[in-house]
Amino acid sequence: VGVGGAPLSSTSNGRASGSSGSNGRDDDNADLVEEGLADESTRGVDESAPLLCPPSHRCARPVLLKPDHFKYHSDGRPVNFTEDFQVPFLIKYRTAIQKVIPSSFIFCESVVDFEHDGALHPPRTLPDEDAKSFVWAAHHYDVVTLVSKKFRTWIGLDLTASSTSQWVTWGSLPYFGHSGVVRAMATAFKHVHSLAADIGSRGVPTLIGETGVPFDLGP
User: Fold this and answer.
1) Which of 7, 90, 95, 132, CA to CA, is 20 to 30 A from 48?
2) Strands (E), the chain
3) Cβ-based neighbours of 184, under 8 Å, separated by 6 or more
4) CB neighbours of 55 closer than 8 A, spacing ≥ 6?
5) Of 65-79, 150-164, 190-204, which one has max mean pLDDT?
6) Mean of pLDDT values over 68-96
7) What is the mean pLDDT of residues 89-118?
8) So what's the pLDDT on residue 22?
């Protein structure tokens, strides 16, 4: 399987794209260019090297040929990962599991949206008939500890704007002192819990799926 899941065609003599032999490499390179996974600049650079070179090799010329490949649908519509991909997957998963265990509940969480400072996106478009089988099991960690790898009792970050229940820029609402740290954590857990009300018309139960101490916490 090649870049983006596209298969790398084998040559007529059975050699795959990384095999030795200049003829096989030329044929495979032509296939990659045709499929849009490589460009002409990869030709004739170093015929003794593998077709797909490691970054340390002098022939490596990484080029992102389709920067919007995962951003838009084929018809030009912007991709909404949660609505377009996660929700259909959750429905299929629930259907398969409940065929075997009809009374089961399915834990779901959000993709971590690093483009929007770690915003959480519950599966709001789950139909009511499906939503009643789900539990909102999002994760939450103390960001100061998670990023710095050291626990500090005197500062915490409130990542939520309680008046709007929206995720805000990291670090914009610092709390100081032990009571401030406790308040920041309580506000964050309250926000995570509140998102469960957006799943289905009546909301779903909440279970914080993961929280605690980072595995690589320093001394």
Assistant:
1) 7
2) 106-108, 134-136, 155-157, 160-161, 166-167, 174-176
3) 156, 157, 158, 173, 175
4) 62
5) 190-204
6) 93
7) 90
8) 43
Instruction: Tell me the C-alpha distance between 28 and 2, whole Å.
Output: 11
Q: Which of 206, 200, 199, 174 is nearest to 187 (CA)?
A: 174
Q: How many CA atoms lie within 13 A of 173 on its CB side?
A: 16
CA 129, chain centre distance (Å): 26
pLDDT band of 206, cuts 50, 70, 90: very high
Find out whether 94 and 131 touch, Cβ atoms under 8 Å: no
Q: Which amino acid is at 84?
A: D
pLDDT average, residue stretch 82-96:
95
The structure's pTM equals 0.63
Tokens coding 61: 């010329």
Tokens 């609402």 belong to which residue? Answer: 173
Q: How far apart are CA 164 and CA 181, in angstroms?
A: 21
Query: Which residue has 């401030």 as its token pair?
Result: 180
d(CA 14, CA 94): 42
Kind and range of the H or E element at 104?
A: none
* Lookup: tokens for 95: 């259907």
| Spatial separation of the C-alpha atoms in residues 214 and 52, rounded to whole Å | 36
